[in-house]
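Give me the fold.
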Amino acid sequence: MPRIARAALPWLAIVLAGTGATWLRLGLIEQPLLADLCTRAAPPWWCPLRQALVLGFLHGVYGWLALAALALALLRRARGLAALAAALGAFALVLYCPESGAFVLLAGCLRLVHLDSGRALPTPAPSPVSARQ
């Protein structure tokens, strides 16, 4: 995989997580017609998924998951964990956990930038003065 694609992949994942959460919120959760279908005697197969999503944001599950991923990302130097934390932050932000979601999205993106900047900088060669000491 080219270096530019590898560098852009975490950012694409964050955008896709936010887009997916927006689709779930506007397309599945907030549609009154779909809510009415789920109250019928024989609800469609996707109603338990919709109900689980609703219970998830009612109990703040998405915000807690995002905070846990951020804690892992801060403890380890892994771009994947930082991207996961930011993606979960975007997911939580869109799905009714705005405080923790916004915090984790920002902190996860900053951690990702920090890790990327550390990789891009070459390690400095020791100076001749410090090599003699």
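The helical segments are 3-29, 32-38, 47-58, 61-75, 79-94, 98-120, 128-132.
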